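User: Before I run my own analysis I want an independent prediction to cross-check against. Here's the chain; please return only the structure tokens and, at the end, one sentence I can use as a sanity check.
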Amino acid sequence: CVVRRFILPIQAAKVVTVRQSCIRALAGLGRIFNWIYLDTFQMYPDTLLELRACAASILPGGQLAGHDFDLEPVQRAVTEFCAETNWRLRCVTAEGSMSFLLSQSG
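Assistant: Structure tokens:
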């Protein structure tokens, strides 16, 4: 469980867990994160909206990661997101639910 793994940083207010749609959770926060790990809904339109919401909350030089890159809707959304923004795919892992890492170019 994520909460058990990060219990000390959570108690020290260094880690915050949020259990809701990232689009709702990030709305209006501004650029406050160094990195975000996206657990996407795995459907193309939702994933594209989630990527946009996450990117709007990441500080310059930050990173955006997620998983399920082995699924076509997620690959399509990541590819389109990178084509429309200054974010670039930096790496993909090889395990079952392939993870991806994006960073800003330039």
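Sanity check: The chain has five helices and four strands.
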